Structures are given as C-alpha cells and as structure tokens.
Amino acid sequence: MDFDAIIIGSGPGGYATAIRLGQKGKKVLLIEKDKIGGECLNYGCIPSKALIELASSMHYLKTIPGFKGDMSIDLASWQEWKWGMIGRLTGGVETLCKSYGVQIERGTGTIIDRNTVSIGDKRFTSENLVIATGSSPVKLPGMDIAMQNRDILDLREIPKSLAIIGGGYIGVELGTAFAKLGTTVTIIEMMDQILPGVDKDITRPVSRTLRDLSVEVLTSTKVESIKEENGYVLHLSSGSDVKADKVLLTVGRIPNTSGFGLENLGLEMDGKFIKTDTGKRTSIEGVYALGDVSGGPMLAHKAFYEAEVVAENICGQNSVVDYHAMPFVIYSDPEISYTGDISGEFENFPLGANGRALGMNSSNGFYRIYFDKSGTVMGSAVVAPHSSEMIGEMTLAVESGLNAMDIGLTIHPHPTISEGLMEVAQGVYSKPLHFKPRD
C-alpha cells in the first residue's frame, strides 16, 4: 500500500486527521479539490466572523456615548485584507501538514474501492480511507438567483437592502452584521421564531437587538418566488412582497456525498449522512467518516474532536466519541453560547449587573447555569458579548462533573465579562455578590 491513510477533504475534520496521523508517524495522503481549509476557513467560519467583527466595531463606535465623527468603509479594500488573512491561515495549515510528512494532492479524489482512490490518471492505495467531504448550502427550486454564503461574504460594496431567506444562525449572524453596516435588512423565516430549535427565552435578547437595528423579522412566512425587477422582488406566503437589492438564501446545509465515487463502496447510510459508529467507523472495515458528512451538529470543533478519535483508531487505540457537553455558539448580538443539558432547574445572573459589560455599553443578556439537586453543573447558557470565549469553561465544568461551588469559589479576574459565571454559580448555592435575586 502507498499510504497508511488517504483522506478526502481538507476541511477542519480532514486536515486535523492528517496532522494527528502525521504526528503519530503515519504516512498520509490528503486530497483537496478546492482550497486547503475547506468551507470553514475559506468561505464560512473565518470570513463570516471577520465581517461580524468589522460590523460590530463600526456599530460600537456609532452608538457609544461621546463618539463624534463620520465613518465609511471601503469594503473592496477590506476584502483584500480578508483574503490575505485567510491565506495566512490556510498556508499555515498546509505548512503544518507538510511538516508532519503529509502528502497533499489537489484535484477531485474518486473512490475506486476501499483501498484505492484516483485523481485523474493517478492511483493511490492505502490501508485506511477517511471521508471528510463536508457539506454544502441547501438550494431551493426556483431560487437559484439568490446568493449563498460564499457570494455574500465576497461582496465588494455594502448593499442598501438585503432580504434573507432563513432565520437560522447564519441568517441572524449575517443579517445583524449588514444591519450594523447600514443595510436595510429583512429576515424571512418559515418557523414561528428566529433561531428555531433554541429556547425563545435564550433568543429574546437577540430579538431585542434586531428590533433596535430596525431589522424586519417575518416569522411563519414562506417565500413563494423570487424575480429580478430593479433588484429583486420576493413574493411571500402572506400575499405581500419584499423588495431588496440583494437576496441571501440560508436554509441549512446538506452533506457532500456525491461526485467522488462514494457509491462504489456501498456504505450503510443514515438518511443523507454516512452512518458511523462511536469510533467514526463506517459499515466497511478501514473506512471512516467524520465531520458534516457523518451527521450530528455541523460544527468545526466537532470535526476537530472527531479527527482525534479517527486518528487514534487508525493507530489501533480503540477510541470513541463522547458528546456529553458540546458547545454551540451563535455569533449574534449579543452572542449566544450554550453547552450540556439546558433543561431543568437553572439560576440566572443579569448581564446588566456586570461592570465590564456596562463599560462596553452592553446590558442586554444574561448568564445561566443548569444544575441538579446536588448543585452539579449540568449545562449552561451565556448570552453576552464574547460569550463564545467563556463557554469553554462551562463545557469543562459539565465534562468534569463540577459543582457550582467549584466555579463560585474560583477567583475570576475583575472587571471581566467572564466573572459573571462566578456570580451565577454563587447564586446556585448562596447569593451573588453584585445582584440581589428576588425572593
């Protein structure tokens, strides 16, 4: 065999598996048909958060008391910077892979059988095959003229108006960002709330911000058709029309399971996803699948985690996944982050009682800990600026079976947003220092 493992796809799951196997001395081939880093680094996670950061910085200066001055954005220049930044990241990943002896081949890998993959006229063999082909945006019939995430993140001018079909996390994140940049935004969601699947109580601060930004949110509404007419006209199920300069379609993602010979393996499927066991093994020995293509929440950090498991199993360690506490983050305003079991009894601490938050002119949000009768932390939800940077602490608490008192007695730096976690934990077993709960 030419290699110990061939990996198809260089997104977070694919390149992480390659690096881990290379670190363990395995001979690895990594195949990528587009750009190293996949969707996340090039067209999703990284560029979208960069745009959100730009928009939030602009909005902060415009709304902070005492600031005076006019601001404008040259989005074309920002795009040049963005692609340069992405290039540094993807170049770094490629360098890391090569430093561990990983061979990178560009092109479409086609599976011939469980041990053989071709790229054009070349054929490669390996003991193990790892499928990490990721996912793509869902497309709807008759809506091909709408932009997808790749398109909108590469705009070189800020649109005057934007209609977003889909009020999930991508729609809310990008809708918020463009509203802060001065775009008139309409979000259209077929379910009865934005961010479907997330408790309304948790999303309430985000809905408040969208109202403050004058974002029109239309729930329980479907888009029946789109036509180009001095921009775009969207005809809604309510009978009304929405006009916009740009239209973004963001109604979910589907796994990439075609175009690379997957059918030649005859793998067992789980709906549209490749079925795997807890070791990320497929129904065929020596073939693994991980990340978006294997089901579960489509999260880059989940793919990173699964890459560890796959690499260990290829090396004979019999590792399994354990999703006891999976952190989720929505980069809205304020950010929503949650982990573990977010049901049952909980304690709240208001963001408005946090000094650092008030210094940032932010009081819209809260900290929450879910706990059992013994005070053990079962889960957490944090709706606050930079909550994405804090949810790791609560994920560790859940994973480690910590008691709320363990967090409440841990010294947190002051003034920080993170010290609200200490305060809400204190509320579980006593009373927080800077807030008097209602009796």
- How many domains comprise the coordinates? 3
Low-confidence stretches: none
Q: If you consult CATH, what is the topology of the largest domain?
A: FAD/NAD(P)-binding domain
State the end-to-end distance: 70 Å
> Which architecture of the largest domain would the CATH scheme give at its second level?
3-Layer(bba) Sandwich
Structural class: alpha/beta
Classify the beta-strand content into a percent band: 15-25%
As a percent range, the share of helical residues equals 25-40%
- How does the overall form come out from the CA principal axes? globular
Biggest sheet: strands, sense, closure?
7 strands, mixed
In CATH, the homologous superfamily of the largest domain goes by the name: FAD/NAD(P)-binding domain
Describe this structure in words.
The protein is α/β, with parallel strands linked by helices and 439 residues long. It has 3 domains: 3-137 and 254-314, FAD/NAD(P)-binding domain; 149-251, FAD/NAD(P)-binding domain (3-Layer(bba) Sandwich); 328-429, Enolase-like, domain 1 (2-Layer Sandwich). Helix content is 31%, strand content 24%. The strands form 6 sheets. Strands 1, 2, 3, 4, 5, 6 and 18 form a 7-stranded mixed β-sheet that branches. Strand 5 (116-119) and strand 6 form a beta hairpin. Helix 1 runs parallel beside helix 4 (75-99), helix 1 (12-23) runs parallel beside helix 8 and helix 3 packs across helix 6.
